[in-house]
Each structure stands twice: as structure tokens, then as C-alpha cells.
Fold:
Amino acid sequence: MTIAPTPVAVFVSGGGTNLQALIDELPKTGAARVARVVSDHADAGALVRARRAGIDAVVLSNPKDQGELLNAVKGIELVVLAGYLQFVPKPIVAKFRGRMINIHPALLPAFGGKGMYGRRVHEAVLASGATITGVTVHYVDEQYDHGPIIAQWPVPVRGGDTAESLAARVLKAEHVLLPRVVTALAKAGLPHSFRMFVDTLDMSLAETDPMVRR
Ligand code: GRF
Structure:
């Protein structure tokens, strides 16, 4: 008996390279599929990727409108926030508790929270003198970058790094980690609550080197 892939909605605001990683990687196991892409920006590059892949794309006219959001997630079992810059209204978060995840380009709880997105995250990491940063995938709760952590992946900060070079290295790790987490959650059944560790996901620091992957 074949089990239908878990339908996933990916929420985006920008370029959508994480969306692209999901589009490319999820079919390899078939446990989940990107069924819809939801954007708060009509000109988000992610929408071009969605349309190119023949995926249903929705542009929100008001990201605070719960009715519109509920419509956008109809038939969806897992919501992935991948570079989505809007705060998700609390009733929607509650409805998708344990079924809504976010990817953040640092090791939470450090370097997260309101206003910590894009290059600001990597600038803060560099300013702190930290030698390790990374990627966090976590369940979404009612606070920015706060819900239970599902998986993390460390990425080294190298001497001479700029916010751009660090962002690029972290992004490579994001593109590997996010599809693996989505696949694992879909296989485990939703809602589900557990942590994945680097070891169990069979990942190594070497893989985060942009010279090694992609
Ligand atoms: C990623 O760094 C993600 O962690 C953060 O926003 C960025 C989105 O990049 N939440 P992209 O749109 O997937 O290229």
C-alpha cells in the first residue's frame, strides 16, 4: 500500500531558496510534497519557483486576515515557514500546533527574536565573536523564533567571514536540513514532537562547506 505524501504549505516572503530545496529533495522519498506556496509579497522570487514547478501559489492580500490564512492552508497537514517575515496570528498557530515549523539561520535561542532576520542575524553572530553558528528548525509558537527545537546543525564561523559569506555557508546547511526534517516529520506522523540530533540525521560539518555541497 502506498501512503499519499503529506501535503505541505511553504510560507515565504523572499527568494525561496529553501522552498527550492524542498521542491528538489522531497520527491526523492515521497513522504511529503509541497502542495502550496503562500506569500505575503506578490513579487517574491519564491513565487516564480512555485509556478515553475507547477505548484499552487497564493498571495495573501492581508497576512493578518485569519479567514484568508485558513483558506490558504486548507487541505494542508504541515506548514513550513521558510523566510516568511510575518507574525502568524495566534489562532492559526494554535490550530497548527505541532504541525507548523520555522527555519532560522542561527543556533536558537541565540541570535533570534523580533527583528533578527536576514543579514542582521549573521552580523550579530560576527559581532559576538562566536566561532560556531548554524541552523535551527523549530515548532512555531506564539513568540518569534521561540517554539520547541526539532533539529539544529552547527556551521563554523571562519576568520575573515563577512555577513554574506557566513549567510551563504549557513544557507547551504539550511538546504540540507530542512528537507530532512520535513521528511522525518512526515514519516513520523503529525502532529509529532521530538528532537533530531545531528548524529541521527547522519550529517557532518564537512557537508556544510559550500565547496562540498551544491
Ligand atoms: C533563510 O535564511 C531562513 O533561515 C530565514 O530566511 C531565509 C530565507 O531564505 N528564515 P530563502 O528565501 O529560503 O532563500
Summary: Residues 12, 14-19, 82-83, 103-105, 171, 174 surround 5-O-phosphono-beta-D-ribofuranosylamine (CB under 6 Å). The two ends are 34 Å apart (CA to CA). The first strand starts at residue 6 and ends at 12.
